[in-house]
Fold this sequence. Notes:
With 340 residues, this protein is of the alpha/beta class. The chain has helices at 7-30, 46-66, 89-99, 117-125, 149-167, 226-237, 247-256, 259-262, 299-317, 333-337, and strands at residues 72-78, 110-114, 129-132, 171-175, 179-181, 197-201, 215-222, 267-269, 275-277, 290-292. Residues 106-306 form the Nucleotide-diphospho-sugar transferase domain.
Amino acid sequence: MDGSLKPGATLALCTLLLISLLLIYFLSEKNPSASITDKPYRSKPPSAIHEASMYRDELEAALEGASMANKTVIIAVVNRAYTEGDKPMFDIFLDGFWLGEDTRQLTNHLLIVAVDQTAFERCMFLRLHCYRLKTDGDDFMDEKVYMSEDFIKMMWIRTRFLGDVLRRGYNFIFTDTDVLWLRNPFPRLTLNETVDLQISVDRFNGDQWSQTNPLNTGFYMIKSNNKTIALFDEWYMQRNTSVGMKEQDVLVELMHKGVFNRLGLGVRFLDTIYFSGFCEDSRDINVVSTVHANCCRTIRAKVNDLINVVHDWKRFRDPSDNKTMDFIWSNHLACQNSWT
């Protein structure tokens, strides 16, 4: 019997083989991962895609969870040093929301940004809105003494993160955790569309629009727009040419060089009667919204004097207390002595 194929059968087999090859080719074009000869530049490595999407998704989810209807969040940054001890700074910070007037519901919009795992776990235990900020291997768990190299580095990492929040379209109030919120501050913050940034000061010069006010980045409200994003970009770019300067000093320097005017920013400086601090006490406890433990060097000193502020507030709120005498804040002795 002849084992060779007939010419017609040979042609059919060749046609079938050609169709199969074409089918494999077109399918591999639709799904590059199925192609053995897929070129490396067609997509990022899977690990890079995973890391980028995890960062985007986790932060976006945290912001969305804490956001008000108008995409405004309250942001505080903490590390382990602020969450440990007999009476941690973080606990005092939260006490303010509990004891303050019309402040408890604001914790629904408070996002705690933890720069180490201990602070993150403490935040999660308290069932707050929490986000774990990775810091590229830097260790920010322990106290970073005012103006130390690590303190300055942590301030710049914070600035970069907050700029990212603005780029995502979120307005925010940033607050240090050494700020006690004794009253809801929103009624004292203008919603005027022409005002982009409202920022606290160490001492108020009497003019809310004057750029000679000594601004303090421990408490401010900022809108997300092209002007404020440009400000944060320019601000962060100065970090490598401003050795030994904290981010607040750099912003003051930029202000004096006219950056607010050049970018067309509306900037309002907050009166210390409403947004006070240890540098300058509020003149009226009946209207004060926040008290900042500024002009103070160490966490221990801040804790001691903020506890006194809590006692002052409780004394003021006590209906049985004699209100005929003028109210006087306790002296901030621990903070005054922290510089010696």
